[in-house]
Amino acid sequence: MNGQASMKIGTRGSPLALWQANEVKRRLHQAHPELPDEAVEVVVITTTGDRIRDRALASIGGKGLFTKEIEEALAAGEIDMAVHSMKDMPTVLPDGMEICCLLPREDPRDAFICNVAEGIAGLPHGAVVGTASLRRQAQVLHRRPDLKVITFRGNVATRLEKLDRGEVAATFLANAGLIRLQRTERITALIEPEEMLPAVAQGAVGVEIRSDDEATRERLAALHDTETEYAVTAERAMLAALDGSCRTPIAGLGLRQADGELWLRAEIVMPDGSDRRATERRGPVSDAFRMGDDAGQQLKRDAGPAFLAEIL
Ligand SMILES: NCc1[nH]cc(CCC(=O)O)c1CC(=O)O
C-alpha cells in the first residue's frame, strides 16, 4: 500500500459475496491491528453473472461469468484484491493474476432443504427438486432417476421462498453459504460426501491479486491457510485436467486423513444421472497437484469421448 491510499477489496454484491469480502477485511485488521478501519475498503462490482437472472447459467456457457468484471478492475488497479468463492473460479486465471490466499475452509458439504422428507431417499416418487447446479442435478438423478429437476436460481433467500411456496419439494445449498448467512435453521439434513460429493473447492474463499503486487501479497500472507490449499490444489488440478468448471457435473473433495495423507475423491456424472465415473487417490500433501491431475486424467480416460461430450 502506498501512502494514504486505502486497500480496495473488490467483490460481487450478493449477500454471500459481501460477507466473504467483509470477512477478509476483518481478518486483515485482526492480522494488522495498526491498519485503521478506513484503510481497507470493500468495493462492489456487478458481473455478467449477476445480470443474468432468468436462464440456467449452464446454458449460457463461458467461464468466469462471475469473475470477468472483477478481474478487469483488478488489472486496471481500481481494486487491489478480489475475494471469490473458489467454487466459482475458473481453473485458469488471466495472465498476471493469482490466488495468493485461501481462508480456512468452511464445511464443504451440501445441505438438503425440504419441507416434506428427511433426506433424498424419503422424497415421494416423482417429486420436483430445484437446483441450478448441473452437478447436483446429475448426482440426485443418479440416485433417484424418478425425480424431476427444475432450474432454480436466485440468491439463498429467494430459493427458500420458492421452496416454502411449494414450487419444489426440495433444494440443495452449500452448507458454507448457509452458515455464513446464518440460515442453517433451514437445513433438513447435511449430505455426507458419500451420498453427494461436493463441488470442487466448495466452502473455500480465495483472494486474487496482481502477481506483481508484493505489498498486498505480504499483507495477505498472514490470512492464508495451508490445509485448505492442499485440498483445493488437488481438487482444482482434477477439474483442470477435465477442462471443467463450476457449471459441469464434476465433483471432488480432498480431506486430510489421521495419518497425514491427503485423500482425494472425484467423480463425473451424466447430467441425466444415467452414468457415473469415480476415482480416488491418497498421498502426501506435497503431491496434491499431481494426485488431482492424475485423478482427472483417469476420469477422462474412463469416461471416453461420448461421456465427456455430454458433460463439458
Ligand atoms: N455457485 C454459487 C455459490 N458459490 C459458492 C456458494 C456457497 C459458498 C461456498 O461454496 O463457499 C454458492 C451457493 C451454493 O452453491 O449454495
Automatic annotation (TrEMBL):
Which Gene3D superfamilies does the record cross-reference, listed alphabetically? Periplasmic binding protein-like II (3.40.190.10), Porphobilinogen deaminase, C-terminal domain (3.30.160.40)
- Keywords (A to Z) from UniProt: Porphyrin biosynthesis, Transferase
Q: Does the keyword Ubl conjugation apply?
A: no
Provide the cofactor list for this protein. Answer: dipyrromethane
Q: Which GO terms describe its molecular function?
A: hydroxymethylbilane synthase activity
What GO CC annotations are associated with the protein? cytoplasm
Protein role: Tetrapolymerization of the monopyrrole PBG into the hydroxymethylbilane pre-uroporphyrinogen in several discrete steps.
What family does the database annotate?
Answer: Belongs to the HMBS family.
Q: Extra info from the record?
A: The porphobilinogen subunits are added to the dipyrromethane group.
This protein's name: Porphobilinogen deaminase
Which organism does this record belong to?
A: Minwuia thermotolerans
